[in-house]
Write a structure and sequence with these properties.
Helix content of chain B: over 70%
Oligomer: heterodimer
Helix content of chain A: 25-40%
CATH architecture of chain A: 3-Layer(aba) Sandwich
Order of helices and strands of chain A: EEEHEEEHHHEHEHE
CATH superfamily of chain A: P-loop containing nucleotide triphosphate hydrolases
Shape of chain B: globular
Distance between the termini of chain B: 24 Å
Number of domains of chain B: 1
Strand content of chain B: under 5%
Distance between the termini of chain A: 32 Å
Number of helices of chain B: 9
Strand order of the largest sheet of chain A: 6-7-8-3-9
Strand content of chain A: 25-35%
Chain lengths: 198, 220
């Protein structure tokens, strides 16, 4: 059971993106982060994932009511975003081996569900943007992380890809805390709660 | 830790093997420059110190072209965050350092072979020369790997890396040139103090870089 507690988060670039933002999301819960372009959705998601520091405030991870050291937060995170690229000179299987450590039955099955099996030994430089998005999602789900951070997960996916995405989200929902930065109506509806940045 | 390190090294080797960027840089720069200098100055240079200086200048600039590449590639292709999410920063640092060490030793050995062959310089202490070249190239890799990360994060390819690296490598450069020059002379000498200095220099910079890297390779 993981709980992500954000307290009084503030971040400023050329303008104040958000100030004194607090929320708590536990296993089985989901939070959508919405807002116009440049409102700070991705920045907030990066702060939640521990790969960016806020100007003030903090994000604390609790695992079974014990605090998690910030150095180990990445062990709890599955993260897929347009600004996190996978290695284009590696194949899908090689990217999975690099990120997860091994290609087990779950990985083979997930690649099949995502329609990537026939191309799993092809370098990603020959993939379309939609196929690369499927690889990114596969990597985020295969980590079996307690916290899933997804930034525009449906981008570049066709209807069939979106259906697979939602079925995967529904499958992991009971055991995962999910954060989705998006403006897509379906993705917003999937989350039980939402934050709107302006 | 070892498995994580190996996966990172394996990934970098595969990417370099397939993209052939480092190989082409090494071939196009170190080989062509060495041969050009050889043909332009063949038989003119008699000073061992000058030979050593030219040799290390070629190794230094070949290294400057390749040492920062491993980090620039991660930033330019937006894959840095992918690595950070899955591995601790120290694993990323150590894997890049090991790759840079291997690349630098290969460059140094390749350059000396071409240099000796093209310029016909007399080497009187071959084993010492190889030992100094290996120690010197390792020092260059240790001294500049973390600077490569800083330059890549600053988004300044080329110039900034060489400028930042220059004051750091100056002491090792001086020692490496002087001891290399002695290898081109007939007099008996011991390179031990130079090699110890170069390796100690590597260790100190390596430790400092190891401690600093998690704070440098963090936000993208």
């Amino acid at each position: 059971m993981v709980t992500v507690k954000a307290s009084n988060l503030s971040k400023r670039y050329t303008r104040m993106l958000f100030r004194d933002m607090s929320f708590s999301v536990a296993t089985g819960q989901s939070l959508a982060i919405a807002g116009p372009n440049g409102s700070g959705k991705s920045t907030l998601l990066k702060i939640i994932a521990g790969v960016m520091t806020p100007d003030s405030g903090n994000v604390a991870y609790w695992y079974n009511d014990k605090p998690v050291d910030t150095a180990y937060i990445r062990n709890y995170i599955g993260f897929a975003a347009p600004y996190i690229n996978v290695y284009k000179y590696l194949t899908a299987l090689e990217n999975i081996t690099f990120a997860i450590g091994t290609v087990d039955d779950d990985a083979v099955q997930l690649l099949d569900v995502l329609g990537l099996s026939p191309h799993s030994n092809t370098m990603l430089m020959f993939y379309s943007t939609g196929m690369i998005q499927r690889v990114k999602l596969a990597l985020a789900f295969l980590k079996k992380a307690s916290v899933l951070c997804l930034d525009e997960p449906g981008s570049n996916l066709d209807e069939q890809g979106k259906r697979v995405l939602f079925s995967l989200l529904e499958k992991v929902q009971p055991t995962t805390a999910i954060f989705i930065a998006t403006n897509d109506a379906h993705e917003l509806n999937f989350c039980k709660r939402s934050i709107v940045l302006d | 830790m070892i498995k994580a390190l190996w996966r990172n090294i394996q990934k970098d080797i595969l990417i370099e093997f397939r993209s052939r960027i480092i190989v082409s840089i090494v071939l196009s720069f170190s080989v062509i420059v060495t041969i050009s200098i050889g043909f332009a100055t063949g038989g003119i240079i008699n000073s061992p110190l000058l030979h050593a200086a030219i040799l290390w200048i070629i190794i230094f600039f070949s290294g400057m072209n390749t040492l920062s590449h491993v980090f620039f590639r991660e930033i330019e292709e937006s894959t840095a965050l992918f690595g950070v999410i899955h591995y601790p920063a120290v694993v990323i640092y150590l894997s890049k350092l090991l790759i840079n060490c291997c690349v630098m030793v290969v460059i140094a050995i390749m350059v000396i072979i071409i240099y000796v062959f093209v310029i016909s310089v007399s080497v009187y202490h071959g084993i010492y020369l190889i030992a100094i070249l290996i120690a010197g190239s390792l020092s260059l890799a240790f001294a500049t790997t973390v600077i490569g990360a800083i330059a890549a994060l600053a988004g300044a390819r080329g110039g900034l890396f060489t400028i930042l690296a220059f004051p750091v490598v100056l002491p090792l450069f001086t020692v490496a040139i002087q001891s290399t020059a002695r290898c081109f002379e007939q007099q008996v000498f011991s390179p031990l103090s130079a090699i110890i200095f170069l390796l100690a220099f590597s260790m100190v910079l390596g430790m400092v870089s190891y401690l600093l890297f998690p704070y440098i390779w963090r936000e993208f």
